[in-house]
DNA sequence: AATACCATGTAAGGAAAAATAACATATTAA
DNA sequence: TTAATATGTTATTTTTCCTTACATGGTATT
């Protein structure tokens, strides 16, 4: 519950999401336009993204790479949403698919970290003067 | 290792940190000026904070509440830093103090979440149109 | 081949957020 | 009282982000 919440919390500005996902602002906004993500807005109307949003964007990128178009991706996302609904309605200990979902999540997280650390020229500059 | 890294990653703009910690920008910058935190900088010179930074700020707030001044807090932080060094140098399974440190971290995390969820008028507005 | 659509690039103009710097001030310490 | 701390406030400048509009290379359709 707390963990879910944490991942759903809108914290990141678009600039960070761009770096984490290697997507352009244009792309991110376009995917929002097509309802693949729905980032929150700050008072001043700035998009604020959650880690869940970042996950979704990474997946979008991947699916696009695989030649799937917006409509297809939307379908995939909708299916997953429904699946989640079913899952939570008849709550058992921990289903197979749930486990897989968790694993997938973990892997994406790992992926993010990898991106941020290895692929330099992006986040690297943020680790400059972190002194000492 | 990955978890540490994650918490050290500079992701948040100062506005989010203000909301998470209930500190003013002035305060946050002042603490930085006094080397209690050292947030990274974006290309455009904007401060980018990590979750570790947020933790530190929450602790600073608490210590100030307790009547401790900058110098005192700096001391506390330095002591912890040294302690961490000792800990990692003679690495055993998981020391007592490490466990406590982890627990403290967890509690602070919980504290953040509580802040963000319950104390509305702050983050609440970010959860508006997160539709459906 | 011509046309249309899709995903993205790019540019303009404006608004919001954040930076620095300087001065003000209430409380605490000497 | 005077000095030092921690924070508020204001002004000015940069940086980031927003929306809108138009351009474009690739695919698919006719």
UniProtKB/TrEMBL annotation, chains A, B:
Coiled-coil regions listed: none
PROSITE patterns: HTH_MERR_2
SUPFAM superfamilies reported in the protein's UniProt record: Putative DNA-binding domain (SSF46955)
Keywords per UniProt: DNA-binding, Repressor, Transcription, Transcription regulation
Domain HTH merR-type residues, every copy: 11-79
Record Gene3D superfamilies: 1.10.1660.10
Keyword Transcription: yes
InterPro entries per UniProt: DNA-bd_dom_put_sf, MerR-type_HTH_dom, MerR_fam
Protein name (record): MerR family transcriptional regulator
């Amino acid at each position: 519950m707390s963990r879910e919440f944490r991942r759903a919390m809108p914290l990141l500005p678009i600039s960070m999401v761009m770096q984490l996902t290697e997507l352009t602002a244009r792309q991110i906004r376009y995917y929002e336009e097509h309802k693949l993500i729905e980032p929150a807005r700050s008072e001043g109307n700035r998009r604020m993204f959650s880690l869940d949003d970042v996950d979704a964007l990474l997946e979008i990128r991947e699916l696009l790479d695989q030649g799937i178009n917006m409509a297809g991706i939307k379908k995939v996302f909708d299916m997953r949403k429904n699946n989640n609904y079913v899952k939570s309605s008849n709550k058992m200990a921990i289903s197979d698919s749930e486990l897989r979902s968790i694993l997938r999540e973990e892997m994406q997280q790992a992926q993010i970290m990898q991106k941020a650390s290895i692929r330099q020229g992006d986040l690297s500059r943020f680790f400059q003067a972190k002194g000492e």
